[in-house]
Amino acid sequence: MSIRGLKKKQPKTFKVKIITVDAEMEFSCEMKWKGKDLFDLVCRALGLRETWFFGLQYTIKGMCTWLKMDKKVLDQEIPKEDPISFNFLAKFYPEKVEEELLQEITQHLFFLQVKKQILDEEIYCSPEATVLLASYAVQAKYGDYDPNFHEPGFLAHDELLPKRVLRQYQLTAEMWEEKITAWYAEHRGIARDEAEMNYLKIAQDLEMYGVNYFPIAQNKNHTDLLLGVDAKGIHIYSINNRFSPNKSFEWSAIRNISYSEKELTIKPLDKKAEVFKFFSSQLKVNKLILQLCIGNHDLFMRRRKVDSIEIQQMKAQAREEKARKKMENQRLAREKQLREEAERAKEELERRLFQLEDEARQANEALLRSQEAAELLAEKAQIAEEEAKLLAQNAAEAEQERQRLEITALKTKEEKRLMEQKMREAELIAVKLVKESDRRAKEAEHLKQDLHEAREAERKAKQKLLDITRLNYPHMVKYPQYSPTDTREANFDKGSIKLDLKDIDLKRLSFEIEKERLDYLEKSRKFEDRLKELKSEIHALKLEEKQSGLY
């Protein structure tokens, strides 16, 4: 067979691009493929078995539409592009995520889609709940919180909160991160699939979770309403309130749903109840609503029936997988705990080793310092020994000096005593001399007075003698010769001799008085000189005593 023949037998294909919430894939499809063929290919590529929740969505003329499984892909009204883009999304939502989502991939795809709807504000969530949900999303992405690894700012590039919440509260990114991290730190030990499941369990209680909204009119007057289709039934909302429905139809209470052109009719199971009719803007909208209603109703009825063999097997596998993962997580947790303990023990050993090395270094430095100190102390000891010898010598000299000073002090005391005795004697002598001087002065004064009286008596005697002489011997002057026989002359001579003797005695007495006065003055001068010498000696002794006291 030729190569040209092989080429002719190869089927014609077209390219499609499948966009999941977190990835993109491209496939080559045969021209004859139906929607189910492409859908099964994508599910096999993803390893997805719970296919009934999902579908392939595309946008045409501004309206989101789901690819029909029973029609050829190219026969449907799809975008004319190469490759043709489809979004692989959850089309139907479970009532209870924990019971119905069996595979981890199913759970992960639902988590990513619901998270995106909350961030895009397609599902309303309170600010407090968004922070808690963000903490579970962080746990699913980063694992357990580690303050050493997850430093401030590690969430700066993650979109975790709706812009509405960020605008509502005037908080910085650091403050939001701090709030999220506070919750995130409490999720320690939770695995990724558990964190995603906790996220979905919180999200499924939100009013807008899993609801597809369509604008409708209750009558031809075009009263604006919203029709919501979810896993529990059909709900009618006012245009400005998507939280609390004005009217609800549970799937168990609906008998039939049909449409005719733009009109869609809901017939309750109770035949007496009023039939609800509404009008949509396009026929395509009614078709889409009916498609969603049929799918949700089928799932609703399926949940209330006995599980098929496939579902039972999947649940058993899911339980085994959860048990295995639980054991694996426990084992990993134990290993992680052991590893952390080993790391802590290693850090403790390293710290201890560092501490011991530091202590060894300090001990070595202390040893070196001790050796240096020992050498220094040896030098100091030698110096101290020499100083001790010198001090002993000085002490001996000081002892000798002390003994000498004691002897000197004794001598000084004796000399002082003798000097004090001499001073007392000198004072007594001075007193005596003063008394003697006073007495001699008084005697000199009496002698002077006696001398004066004697001289006055002498003068008077001479005058009297002259007077007598003149009266008895007037011519004696002219005749100086004396007669030997004249007794008066002899008597006169005797009187003259007596007078001369008396005069001589007076002179002698005056001389003696003057001599004694001079002797007294000389003795007084010598005594004063002696007193000065004594004062000098006493002053010198006092200086020696002061110096002895200093020693």
UniProtKB/TrEMBL annotation:
Localization of this protein: Cell membrane
MF term (GO), any: actin binding
Gene3D superfamilies: 1.20.5.450, 1.20.80.10, Phosphatidylinositol 3-kinase Catalytic Subunit, Chain A, domain 1, Pleckstrin-homology domain (PH domain)/Phosphotyrosine-binding domain (PTB)
Segments forming a coiled coil: 311-464, 517-544
Signal sequence interval, chain numbering: none
Major subcellular site: membrane
Pfam families given in the database record: ERM_C, ERM_helical, FERM_C, FERM_M, FERM_N
SUPFAM superfamilies xrefs: Moesin tail domain, PH domain-like, Second domain of FERM, Ubiquitin-like
Domain of life the protein comes from: Eukaryota
Residue spans crossing the bilayer: none
Gene Ontology, cellular component aspect: plasma membrane
Protein keywords: Cell membrane, Coiled coil, Membrane
Binding, a 1,2-diacyl-sn-glycero-3-phospho-(1D-myo-inositol): K68, M69, D70, K71, K287
InterPro entries: Band_41_domain, ERM, ERM_C_dom, ERM_FERM_C, ERM_helical, Ez/rad/moesin-like, FERM/acyl-CoA-bd_prot_sf, FERM_2
Domain FERM stretches: 14-304
Membrane topology recorded in Swiss-Prot or TrEMBL: Peripheral membrane protein
Database matches in PANTHER family: MERLIN/MOESIN/EZRIN/RADIXIN (PTHR23281)
Name of the protein: Merlin
Organism of this sequence: Cuculus canorus
Phylogenetic lineage: Eukaryota, Metazoa, Chordata, Craniata, Vertebrata
